[in-house]
Amino acid sequence: MGQRRSGSRWQSVLLAAVAVLLATAACAAAQLSQNYYASTCPNVETLVRGAVTQKLKETFNAAPGTLRLFFHDCFVRGCDASVLIAGQDDEHSAGADTTLSPDALDLITRAKAAVDADAQCANKVSCADILALAARDVVSQAGGPYYQVELGRLDGKVGTRAVVKHSLPGAGFNLDQLNKLFAANGLTQTDMIALSGGHTIGVTHCDKFVRRLYQFKGAPPQNSPAMNLAFLRQMRQTCPLSYSPTTVAMLDAVTPNKFDNGYFQTLQQLKGLLASDQVLFADRRSRSTVNYFAANQTAFFDAFVAAITKLGRVGVKTTGSDGEIRRVCTKVN
């Protein structure tokens, strides 16, 4: 009986702690606003958009790279630009972060320089907010929706590789694993599917899906969704058994440079590269949403805007004791 009471007390303490964390997160998110820099840096959106436009003229790779950078930043330590911190033990030296786009990192560096070059804005805009604005701008300039971005985040003071592996979805995740991870960040299944639609632009490396293409001797069986046979043969040509670690394939081979609902249509055709993508159509619990987005691009865009707005509130820091405005995005002050 004593053990049961003790366990009950611990459960109550745990629930109370979770409630406090959620309340704290909600309070921080409530301090974000679309006009946060109205008096301190009224031109911030124009300055960031200019840097994005120039970079995308040089290489489209920066578009999917920046969107992925924002997602990885928010899921690992909250949206605090910790993913940008460079060092021996930094976040982008671990797990999925090792393939973060150099072009995306360069885009944020340029955007930060453009903002700080304005005398009124110098050292007043966080790298976390610049990343959130840049993510919106690459989506919009790739043909996706334009939406208002909530601002007011501070930059984190810590960025280490220790928590990266367990914070991000894996290429082989099933629906339950995806839902659990996204729910831990306050996001629903619909949010998860909409954000997965960001894969409508960008590439993935062979090692993330090669086990869907071949039967490896001695390898444990994998619960991988079915793949279109003609597409399977095509991908074997792209990624032979002797593939190069740098070889990539388009996540949406039909319109890889356009932010549209083509990603969901590829899933319907069993042409999703990642198991974690194709499972959204394979699992009956999520298939109807995939079908809806595949048939209605406006619905997808609306859901994406709602989801990425919620994503931008994850773990934000809005008080001086929690964060700072970095003078250089790649290192703490």
Automatic annotation (TrEMBL):
Keyword Lipid metabolism appears in the UniProt entry: no
Catalysed transformations (reactions): 2 a phenolic donor + H2O2 = 2 a phenolic radical donor + 2 H2O
Binding site for substrate: P169
Cofactor note: Binds 2 calcium ions per subunit. Binds 1 heme b (iron(II)-protoporphyrin IX) group per subunit.
Gene Ontology MF terms: heme binding; lactoperoxidase activity; metal ion binding
Cited Pfam families: peroxidase
Stretches assigned to the Plant heme peroxidase family profile domain: 31-333
One biological process term in Gene Ontology: response to oxidative stress
Localization of this protein: Secreted
Cysteines paired by S-S bonds: C41-C121, C74-C79, C127-C329, C206-C239
Residues the UniProt record annotates as site (Transition state stabilizer): R68
Binding site for Ca(2+) 2: T200, D252, T255, D260
GO cellular component: extracellular region
Signal peptide annotation: 1-30
Keywords: Calcium, Disulfide bond, Heme, Hydrogen peroxide, Iron, Metal-binding, Oxidoreductase, Peroxidase, Pyrrolidone carboxylic acid, Secreted, Signal
Cofactors that this protein relies on: Ca(2+); heme b
Active site: H72
Entry EC number(s): 1.11.1.7
Binding site for Ca(2+) 1: D73, V76, G78, D80, S82, E91
Function noted in UniProt: Removal of H(2)O(2), oxidation of toxic reductants, biosynthesis and degradation of lignin, suberization, auxin catabolism, response to environmental stresses such as wounding, pathogen attack and oxidative stress.
Protein family (similarity comment): Belongs to the peroxidase family. Classical plant (class III) peroxidase subfamily. Belongs to the peroxidase family. Ascorbate peroxidase subfamily.
This protein's name: Peroxidase
